[in-house]
Amino acid sequence: MSNLFKRVLLIISVFCIHGLLYANPSLEKKPKLYAIVIGIGEYPKANFSSKFAENDATAIYHRLKGQIGEIYTEGSIKLLNQPEQTTQAAIQQAFIEIKSKIKPEDVFVLYIAGEADRIDETYYLLTSQSQDFSAEQLKYTAISTIQLKKWIADIPTTNKLILLDTPMSDSVIKMNDVFAKNINKCKSGMILTAGRYTVEEGFRGHSVFTYTIRDALSGIADQNKNGFIESNELAQYVEAAIPMIAKQAFKRQQIPYIDRCGGNLRFKKVQ
User: Sign of dihedral through CA atoms 31, 32, 33, 35?
Assistant: First the structure.
């Protein structure tokens, strides 16, 4: 076989492979989805619990697992909703493991449901080790805003979605915190929280905030009818639905907090 003929075959092969990749998007490299889904419902040494947190976390976990295949490949999607999984150390370890694996082009989602409190304007997420809401307990068994911000900022990706379903969660984390004050590095970033005042009674087996997230990802938030729920559509739906549900079902006011930068993250409909 002549050298010229071999070169012609090589060129044809390259064009065929190139055409196949663009003709079949499924062969293109997809970003990996990494997520930490936390539901702190049990506080074994305390006389209180978070009624919906465990079930809420499970629901969001299944919505995220359902994203694998069409849009993302699976990196690691962790569900932490048992007492031994929701200690300070266990939650920190989950962040450490993902930090070591995730790439800048991948997507990171953090969801947290549970109890929280503020002392001297510092926000604390209670862990399963917390026994009460005292200053001593919060400082030694809870996770402060400072710790949480650092753990999130240390995740080295330009695509982050943060969902906080806790009391007093308005503006406790901002996009500047999530990207360690390098906001120009944000490719697709969004923070959605339940807000300062939350309805505690729950709605159809979930907190109002998580119910709207779950509902949005089922497809109802797909405003442009392109078959996907984009993060901006998710935010718009949550922003409209939460106040309406709180007012009509509970005669209460609940206003979610939203902060965003960069472009859209995309999610597929999951029933």
Answer: negative
3-state secondary structure of 190: strand
Integer distance in angstroms from the first to the last C-alpha of the chain? 57
Along the chain (271 residues), what's the average pLDDT of each consecutive run of 10 residues? Answer: 50 45 54 97 89 94 94 96 96 97 97 93 93 90 95 96 94 92 89 90 90 95 92 96 94 95 93 79
Give CA separation, 174 vs 38, 169, 171, 260, in Å: 19, 11, 6, 8
List helix spans (H) across the chain.
3-23, 53-65, 88-99, 135-141, 145-153, 175-178, 208-215, 231-250
Of 149, 127, 150, 155, nearest to 139 by C-alpha is 127
Integer Cα distance of 94 and 96 in angstroms: 5
Residues 8-46 have pLDDT tens digits of 444 444 444 444 444 444 445 899 999 999 999 999 988
